[in-house]
Amino acid sequence: MIERQSFQAELAVGYPPFRERYMSNVVLERPWRIVATAVPDGGIFTHMRTVWEFAEAISNSSTGLPANPFVRKCMSSTRVSFSIEYEFASALHAQAASLVFDKMAQSNLVAYLARCQQLYGK
């Protein structure tokens, strides 16, 4: 059963020394999907949409081989997909982001994995 919940949240994007806050409409479709879309209010983005999707990992994606049935019974794994679409409102923001985008993405991934480790110990 999918539980759907919507709300607005203040989010931040950036990498020091740049940091911008913006409002986003967030839709949770538990347990499988989170979609956040920036509110078009004349802020930093003309368009920003992020999607997180979660699914049971049933194969080893690096080899295409099925997951080990023993491991699957003892420990579940989750495949996480993340996509982002965005367009900055100003050329200055777009240029600044292009210089640090890889660092921002890596920082986001590290924070996500650290939180998983904290919550689940895996």
Quick overview:
This protein has two helices and seven strands, in the order ββββββαβα. With 122 residues, the protein is of the alpha+beta class.
Please give a structural write-up.
There is one protein chain. The radius of gyration is 17 Å and the shape is globular. It contains two helices and seven strands, in the order ββββββαβα. It has helices at residues 69-74, 91-120, and strands spanning 3-15, 18-30, 33-38, 45-56, 59-60, 65-66, 78-88. The protein has 122 residues and is α+β, with helices and mostly antiparallel strands. Helix content is 30%, strand content 48%. The chain has a five-stranded antiparallel β-sheet. It has a two-stranded antiparallel sheet with strand order 5-6.
SSE map:
Blueprint: E1 3-15, E2 18-30, E3 33-38, E4 45-56, E5 59-60, E6 65-66, H1 69-74, E7 78-88, H2 91-120
Antiparallel strand pairs: 1-2, 2-3, 3-4, 4-7, 5-6
List keywords for this structure.
alpha+beta; 7 strands; about 120 residues
Unreliable stretches, pLDDT < 50, 5 or more residues? 68-75
- Rg (C-alpha, Å): 17 Å
Give a quick account of the main beta sheet: strands, pairing sense, barrel closure: 5 strands, antiparallel
Q: Class by helix and strand content?
A: alpha+beta
Count all strands and give the number: 7
**What strand order characterises the main sheet?**
1-2-3-4-7
Average pLDDT confidence is 78
Order of helices and strands: EEEEEEHEH
How many angstroms does the end-to-end distance come to? 26 Å
Give the overall shape, derived from the CA principal axes.
Answer: globular
Considering DSSP H and I runs of 4 or more, what fraction of the residues is helical?
Answer: 25-40%
Q: What is the quaternary state of this protein?
A: single chain
Number of helices: 2
| Share in β-strands | over 45%
